[in-house]
Amino acid sequence: MNLGRRPGMWCLASVFMSLLRDILTSPSCWQHAILFNRFNYPFELEKDLHLKGYHTLFQESLPYYPKSMKCYLSRIPSRMPSERHQIGNLKKYYLLNAASLIPVLALELRDGEKVLDLCAAPGGKSVAMLQCAYPGYLHCNEYDSLRLRWLRQTLESFIPQPLVNVIKVSELDGREVGDAQPEKFDKVLVDAPCSNDRSWLFSSDSQKAACRISQRRNLPVLQIELIRSAVKALRPGGLLVYSTCTLSKAENQDVINEILNSHSNMTPVDIKEMARTCSQDFTFAPTGQECGLLVIPERGKAWGPMYVAKLKKSWTI
Ligand SMILES: C[S@@+](CC[C@H](N)C(=O)[O-])C[C@H]1O[C@@H](n2cnc3c(N)ncnc32)[C@H](O)[C@@H]1O
Asked: Distance from the CA of 113 to the center of ligand 1, in angstroms?
């Protein structure tokens, strides 16, 4: 968000930043979208949501939008109760920040593809991917063992057994996956660890804040290493989507620019069309990149922050 050096623009920027901060630090403003589980479709809930004024996300036609994915949202902040995990029972819906669906849709998943979710826990985007298509193989990886358990539980709660058989869950450092499985995947999602602005701003006490500031400095290095590994894991012609839930330019545009400058086999894919078709439900800030979108929270559309960048691996190096 380079708003130039004019005083009027600075003033506008500071009003804007304070509005943004208000939303990020007030959970009462946060909205929760309801992603239906196509494997246990909630018909009754759907009627109820219509009566309550909810609408479906991406009503405008996106260049790619699978009909099997249904996500409902309301302009008024509200929160459905989460369903309890019960062994043997599939859940009917997943509550999420609607902007989380943008990286999943940017992957343009098709049936039969080999897909890697490099940083997968707690599994929201893996569940969303499976609402879009039936992959031939889905590899969900997570480095943190506690979060890995959460990921397994999410998959067990939403995905029927026959489909679970095409999913592999691993507990690897994502930086090693590319060397272990070179050029294996058609699509790779790197939903990277980042300085998550919602939880960082909301829960920081001074000790935590100091620790987070020092972690923050190291994040771009980790993010670049994760993408490098993802590039190796991707087959030529495959698509890579990188996402974070931070506004930090150092973790967003700068990371992607570094990858583009150091990988002649990666080319940016223009995703501005996505922003045009879903501007009713999301507010976007300029990123200075054709391949990068940044959703910023606004009252009534308190989704994000979410940065999404899309790259393609070329056939020849
Ligand atoms: C933003 S979260 C992923 C959210 C997830 N994609 C979802 O939609 O539910 C980032 C995840 O990356 C994991 N992570 C951190 N370092 C990692 C590494 N080196 N390799 C793989 N995963 C890592 C974190 O533990 C965290 O669960």
From this structure: 22
The residue type of 150 is W
Q: Is 48 annotated as a binding residue?
A: no
- Asked whether residue 90 is domain-assigned, the answer is no
d(CA 32, CA 299): 13
> Using a 6 Å cutoff on CB, does residue 178 contact ligand 1?
no
What is the position in ligand 1's atom list of the atom closest to the CA of 244? 1
Is residue 21 included in any domain, yes or no?
Answer: yes
Which pLDDT belongs to residue 7? 58
Per-residue pLDDT at 181 exceeds 60: yes
Whether residue 75 is contained in a domain is answered as no
Task: Name the nearest CA neighbour of 84 among 153, 161, 162.
Answer: 153
Please say if the pLDDT value at position 215 is more than 70.
Answer: yes
Q: 22 C-alpha to center of ligand 1: Å?
A: 27
Question: Over 70: is that where the pLDDT of 158 sits?
Answer: yes
pLDDT of residue 266: 98
Which atom belonging to ligand 1 lies closest to the Cα atom of 222?
19
Decide if 77 is inside a domain: no
Task: Specify the ligand 1 atom closest to the Cα of 128.
Answer: 8
Catalytic residues: 245
CATH number at residue 280: 3.40.50.150
Residue span of the structural domain in which 185 resides: 7-28+98-313
**Number of domains observed in the structure of the chain:** 1
117 CA → ligand 1 middle, Å: 9
Helix H or strand E segment including 275: helix 272-277
Cβ-Cβ contacts under 8 Å for 183 (sequence gap 6 or more): 232, 233, 234, 235, 236
pTM: 0.91
Tens-place pLDDT, residues 116-155: 999 999 999 999 999 999 999 999 999 999 999 999 999 9
pLDDT at 255: 98
Q: Is 103 touching ligand 1 by the criterion CB < 6 Å?
A: no
User: What are the start-end ranges of the H helices in 52-113?
Assistant: 101-106
